[in-house]
Design goal:
The longest helix has 26 residues. The two termini are 15 Å apart. The strands form six sheets. A five-stranded antiparallel sheet has the order 6-5-18-19-20. A five-stranded antiparallel sheet has the order 13-17-14-15-16. The protein is of the alpha+beta class. It has nine helices and 21 strands.
Amino acid sequence: MRRVPTGERPDWRETARKNGFVFHTLDGAPYWDESHAYAFTLDEIEEDFEAPSGELHALCLDFAARAVEDERILASLRIPESAWDAVRGSWRRGDASLYGRLDLSYSSTGPAKLLEYNADTPTALYETGVFQWLWLEELLHDGRLPAGSDQYNAVHERLIARFREIGAGMLTAFAAEADAPEDRGTVTYLQDCAQQAGHATRFLDLSEIGLRADGRFCAPDETPIDLLFKLYPWEWAFSDAFASGVAGSATRFLEPPWKAVLSNKGLLPHLWAQEPRHPNLLPAFFEGDPQAASLGDSYVRKPIFSREGSNIEILRDGTVLAHEPGPYGGEGYIRQALAELPSFDDRRRPLIGSWIVGDAPAGLCVREGRGAITGNDALFVPHFIEPAA
């Protein structure tokens, strides 16, 4: 893995506007950064990311099958008892999953290490599947990347194919906070993929979702929703006004309720217990577990529920290396062995996101922060695969 200066295209903002990438700058701060890119070898992509990602996702599915039938596991994940029937029912029915993103620490000196699984509401999807691919094509056309360069990126095609597998012809509603540019952009992109796959679609603000007398979720005009994609975490949904309607509803969800088993940090201790010494897993324990002491004075303390790095604390040799404030932590913490992100020339630290679409690895994104914790101010940086010598 190398960090390679590439220089910006002079008209990339106009290209972004034409292609609907309206959130390349957020609150006046850059989000997309193409002044440089990350270069990987084909062996790194195939052996260090693609194959391990498929294996890690398979381990997660094996765990989900156990978890939904074990009340002790569900309780350890802080899934409320009132939601257990919804979680179990969605797994037993085989409700389809659309996507997820494995966040990995990687430095070319050893196996990629799983830091967490964003299995429910991951963002960075449009910029992965579309805009960084357009970047690659333009730089190849202009001769600014070596001829034969490629990109690990089948996200767009596989999303459309997955929507076809889930079933065309149904009314699929896409819901997010309409006033949040990044969320709206992500959902608009997924809505377009579904339309290409033959779905009838409709966008709704989260506040517009209703519940009919017959138990189906609906639009404001009471049109029943067959399939609801919501950019809204299950741990929030399980505590809102319509939570009691999920288990018995004929409406299906993307992501399905069983994804709540995989979308919190409590997954990590269970995976380590399931597959100790797996090369792509880090030792992890619930904070109250006596085995947590085996991590010594260097570890990462994470709330079971956390987003954008909130309330995460990194300790090295007993000294706090980094800490992010936030609203989480009341649900409890885990401790995970420390696997620091590599640091490049200007102290940027890349976090690798490995996408799963359906149940297969589909592509890669790189988000780059200045600190040890990747927060919501991290930049999206494109990548490419270097041609063989």
